[in-house]
Amino acid sequence: MGIRVEGEPPYPTTQAELDKYCNRFIQTLQKYLRDRLISVHLCGSWARGEANPPVSDVDLMVVIDKIDEQISGALQKVWQEVNMGCANVVDLPEIAAAPTELMAMMSDCHVVLLGTNPFPSPTKERYAQNLADVASTMGLYARSREYYHWETNERKLRLLKELNTKYMLKWALRNLVAIRTGTIPVTYADLKRQLLGTEEGCLLHWAENVTDSDYTTAESQLEISSRFSLFAQRWLEESSSVRKNGLNKRT
Q1: How many CB atoms sit inside 10 A of residue 93's CB?
Q2: 10-40 confidence digits (pLDDT tens)
Q3: Would you give the end-to-end CA distance of the chain in angstroms?
Q4: Distances from the Cα of 232 to the Cα of 11, 113, 137, angstroms
Q5: Chain centroid, CA 60 distance in Å
Q6: Which of 124, 116, 57, 63 is nearest to 89 (CA)?
Q7: Which of 40, 142, 149, 187 is the most exposed place for a label (fewest CB within 10 A)?
Q8: CA dist., res. 184 & res. 200, Å (int)
Q9: Could you tell me the pTM of the whole model?
Q10: Rounded Cα gap, residues 105 and 110, in angstroms
């Protein structure tokens, strides 16, 4: 679920509503941006076929030629007229710079609703970088639970629970599968199937069954943080190996 703000228009709850929502947005974009509009993409849970309405928001990305004063004014008119929620707006220079967060979003599965796809195909090295980024964060979170005696228990619990989310564990595992196979799993069912019989598959099964009561004692908290820390270190080593091999091939 995306972060909702007060007064934000409601999101679609059915495929028919989604189609109408996207079509209205695209038509309004074309009206004000004309040939400066490059493409429109549907990302996130709706693109993966895993939306859970009304909880799920709609992740849309708009690509334009270049953000400038004219475009900014046109986009203000789009939102005033269309009365819809959020969408990410990027331009071609930003895509060329390939920031990690943007490329991660696009490699996570997207559907081109309009135009041609300006994003380069993700590589194993890109997946390895994604894995390294999230594994590093996971390791830091886990170690803070193990070492920092002065942190409040409330903060320790929050960081520990954040490890077991789609933004941490599942994102790490999806990129791990991608660097091993060359293709990122689109759905959660795909992820579980490709991890079947592996240590990470066992980790995912265990993580699915962790309950709030498992966080209640210092011993269980330490066990959970130690397990995440161990896997995060393994993934950092594997991602480093993939990136090193890719560098050697280019030199």
Answers
A1: 10
A2: 889 999 999 999 999 999 999 999 999 999 9
A3: 42
A4: 35, 36, 9
A5: 13
A6: 63
A7: 149
A8: 15
A9: 0.80
A10: 8
